[in-house]
Design goal:
The protein is α+β, with helices and mostly antiparallel strands and 206 residues long. It has 7 helices and 8 strands; from the N terminus they run H-E-E-H-H-E-H-E-E-E-H-E-E-H-H. The protein has one domain. It has an 8-stranded antiparallel beta sheet.
Length: 206
């Protein structure tokens, strides 16, 4: 997927003018790319529009206007984009019991060995970004990838059903993606033109 470049970035003043409209469009866009897995976890499959928005928000919040600093942020956030042979997702852990949150997070240690994508008859284990889990601590935000080889890409293009499964000893859940979500995720991954069109729709009219 084509990286986000300087030419894609709106200047701070312009982004401030359209930020609320962009936020509403991104919420709608992410709704079709988000899958709830049980009561406490959700995945958002990333694409050019979601990564562009995260970059713009960071530049806005941190008041970053220097071109070299913007390039540095782009390098960081472009790492979240899916590659030619993998789907990329952000996993969010949202625990309701705030008084027991440390204990509950510790119960999820080892999660990186217990998340997989089911694609038709295929089971594709998630590869988690390193450094977001230690022997006694796990982050509430995890970045992961699912390797999509030629056979898996063929299954995606052929409309194979998709599901996310978590089979951790302390958290078990399976979520099947809707046909619309599966088609949107597969489309933006398999066709760069669709990914670009998704970003254009988010920015349409701004």
């Amino acid at each position: 997927m084509r990286p986000i470049g300087l030419d894609d970035i709106l200047g701070r003043e312009r982004y401030g003018e359209v930020r609320e409209a962009i936020r509403r469009r991104i919420i709608a866009h992410k709704r079709m790319r988000r899958v709830a897995v049980g009561d406490s976890m959700s995945l958002v499959f990333e694409d050019r529009a979601t990564v562009w928005y995260q970059t713009q928000e960071m530049l806005w919040i941190e008041h970053i206007t220097d071109l070299d600093a913007i390039r540095a942020e782009l390098a960081v956030y472009n790492e979240l984009l899916p590659g030619d042979e993998d789907l990329a997702a952000t996993l969010l852990i949202e625990l309701a019991e705030q008084d027991r949150i440390r204990e509950e997070f510790q119960r999820l240690l080892g999660l990186d060995r217990h998340v997989a994508l089911l694609l038709g008859e295929r089971r594709i284990p998630a590869s988690f970004e390193e450094g977001r889990q230690t022997d006694d601590k796990i982050s509430a935000v995890q970045y992961l990838r699912f390797s999509v080889d030629a056979g898996a890409r063929q299954a995606l293009a052929g409309g194979a059903p998709m599901a996310i499964v978590v089979d951790h000893p302390n958290y078990t859940a399976t979520a099947t993606l809707s046909d619309a979500s599966r088609a949107g995720i597969a489309g933006s991954f398999l066709d760069a033109g669709i990914a670009d069109a998704d970003l254009r729709r988010v920015c349409d009219g701004v």
